[in-house]
Amino acid sequence: MSTSPTTSSPSAEPGRKSALHTLLRDPQAVISASILLVIVLLGLLTPLLTDHGPNDSSLDAVNAAPGTPGYLLGGDKSGRDILARLLNSINTSVVSALVGASIALAVGVTCGLIGGYFSRRVRGVTEWLFSLVMTFPGLLLLIVLLPVTDGDYRVTMLIFGVLLSPGIYRLVRNLVVGVSNELYVDAARVSGLPDRRILRRHILYVVRGPIVIAAAFLAGSSIGVQSGLAFLGIGSNEVASFGTMVSDGFANLYEEPLQFIWPSLLLGIMTASLVLLGNALRDALEGGRPKASGLPRSQGRRPVPAADGTGRPGATDAVSGLLVVEDLSIAYPTPSGELKEVVSGASIRLEAGETLGLVGESGSGKTQTAFAALGVLPPEAVVARGSIRLDGRELLGLPETELRAVRGTSIAYVPQEPMSNLDPSFTVGAQLVEGVRAATPLSRREARERVLALLDRVGIPDPKRTFDSYPHQVSGGMAQRALIAGAVASRPLLLIADEPTTALDVTVQAEILDLLRDLQKELNMAVLLVTHNFGVVADSCDRIAVMRHGTIVEAGSTAALFDEPGHPYTRMLLDSILDEATVRTDGPASPEISRENAAPGTEAS
Amino acid sequence: MTSPLLDVSELSVTYPGRGFRARPQEVLHAVSLHVREGETLGLVGESGSGKTTIGRAVLGLVKPSGGRILLRGQDITHVPAKVRRRLARDIQVVFQDPYTSLNPSLTIGDILSEPLVVQGASAPDARARVRELLDHVGLPADASARLPREFSGGQRQRVAIARALAPKPRLIVCDEPVSALDLSTQTRVLDLFIDIQRRTGVAYLFVSHDLAVIRHVSHRVTVLYRGDVVETGAADRITTSPEHAYTRGLLLAAPVADPARQRERREERRRLAALELSVKKVS
Description:
Strand content of chain A: 5-15%
Radius of gyration of chain B: 20 Å
Shape of chain A: elongated
Distance between the termini of chain B: 50 Å
Strand order of the largest sheet of chain B: 6-7-8-3-9-10
Mean pLDDT of chain A: 83
Oligomer: heterodimer
Largest sheet of chain A: 6 strands, mixed
Largest interface: A-B, 77 and 102 residues
Radius of gyration of chain A: 35 Å
CATH topology of the domain at 1-90 and 171-180 and 205-241 in chain B: Rossmann fold
CATH architecture of the domain at 1-90 and 171-180 and 205-241 in chain B: 3-Layer(aba) Sandwich
Number of helices of chain A: 26
Largest sheet of chain B: 6 strands, mixed
Distance between the termini of chain A: 19 Å
Number of strands of chain B: 10
Number of helices of chain B: 10
Low-confidence stretches of chain A: 1-16, 288-318, 594-605
Structural class of chain B: alpha/beta
CATH topology of the domain at 24-47 and 77-285 in chain A: MetI-like fold
CATH architecture of the domain at 24-47 and 77-285 in chain A: Orthogonal Bundle
């Protein structure tokens, strides 16, 4: 099991494909990258492809038609070779993209790493600096600085790179702040790694994806801005650029429309390819959205209850009980499109007023089973077969409105994490009143009285104060009490509690379990207690169902199951419990053996 | 052998207040404890008791506002970054969450060899040591070429333990290292901790909220409550007949996996709670 990683390796293999591999299989990435490659190659091979310089003009070639010998795409109004100018413009664009993107990346990434990783004071400085840069009106500044740049587009792109850097800085800083709190960065610090190495190996490496993606977009916008400036006639006229070509063609639009088309087309293809490549990179590096499984969505919501239609007419009458789950199977679509069963043929039965413990380790499907009974499985879940009946009524396949009525009055739910199940922007009281009013015809005043009485009942010392508190103002234990108050408000027949005490301290856990037990007796409700803790089960449950790999391996009364577990898995679980007998008896290890680590495998036990 | 391996005296830690003009909050109030060579000191307490903060202060991840931390008599409370990096050879850590404590983009081999290479080991030496470490924690040698996400929680925690063992430390701070694991995995990982201690003589500062876990691995136990030490003593005494009322309450609150005995304990606990309540009402 957990000690034999070999079992997990085959299924994990497909996930190991590198980002490059994914990229190579993505047609969008392959096509856009090939287009860019071809364009860049054309630019590099300019001297071989044409005899003319970009500014060589000849009176013979003024507005020459495409196909004129030596002028494949014709000549412009000044008699310059359009092909030569196009090829040179490619080079201008590529240089612009490289200069703009690399400056923005160099400045933004460096400062983002520093600002995100080091102390708050350092971040204050970088933050201020980049906010300042952001206040500059970009394009205007580039025009105003023309005397400084001397019309050289490369210097202009350098400045433009600095102007672009705040976006990158913000992106990197946010990523780094998030990653710096990860435990593996703490672990790297404890390992004695210098900050520089942590930044390079552990932080930059993890945040590289979004940076690569941003680089593609930066390159695209650099090309756009360079062409835009050239179109406006800002900068040297000597440099061939898509901007100047579009501008020339524009002036000549009515006589020779093709002169306008060529540069626009190439500019469009280049920037579009960069954006598409950026998107493909995002999908590859950030593991794009999962593909739809190809199954109709309705299948997940409207399953066919098997018990009625599979030739087992007696099944409905044979098993009675408050909650009867029979042969339940729940599956989820995997990325490859197949269905993976997480619950396969689970059956449980719960009598009125009884507490059933649904026990299992992580991944056993116990929470999925509980969610299915509540009718709150996520939309992609597929209930393949089975039936869930509450008081004889089939819940699977019930329309959402009816299901909502059942949830409000007959089934209630207590979650694992009380805090994440309360909306932080409303008071605890307001949320409980809303729940009570949805389930009962009480007026607002009456509902409020009812909630206050319930809060008092669940042992909250000052109900009025808790009623008016926001979730962050109460402790986890109090929040769980409040949620229990809300759950029992409509006197449900069945309370489903999913690990209700796992997130709580042990002393609070004992109080919550006491409360649940008292309420259960008082209201004579059945409780389905989903848990991994056998102590909790021993404390609260009348009967136990042990779940493993989506099936119930064993069920029975609590006393019988603890005394004589029938299934080897149950026995194994019970044997793993650390009880009083497992107190450590051997003394501290002799520090002498530490000098030389003993050879592995010498330990007899 | 007069001075203990780790000696924490009067340690206080203060966190800055959150929000505008919020007052700073002291989460540890002059806590003293020590760990001897080769022993396990269990630190047990509920959330907000400061047990994790003690571990982080020893590791140098939070700055103490008062008190001293001595490692083999050497003061390491406030040391420059360079000295702190050298301390990595003596003090290591295993964190709670095996899912976030391993860098998802590095292979197991890289994760394990990195600290070694940084401390000056040659590449072949590091590789050999990685093989040895994997064997130590019961993972196959071919694990080195794989990524953390290919392993289960228990296996990842084994990797984290191997990483901690890499520089042959004298002390490992274990911060709830089995809390995120399933029951059966938990027991196996705890046994691995004990096994490694017997073999290497490393000492553990073992932080947990679970008395059963603490009882299983500790020689001595310190109980914390809201930043103060409640009591310290031998593990079997603290976990069976504690002196302090808080520890007794903690012990009774943890449910045992035996329906009949748990019923008795529950009644005992409720009787004590009722008693406490009536005492409060009288006074």
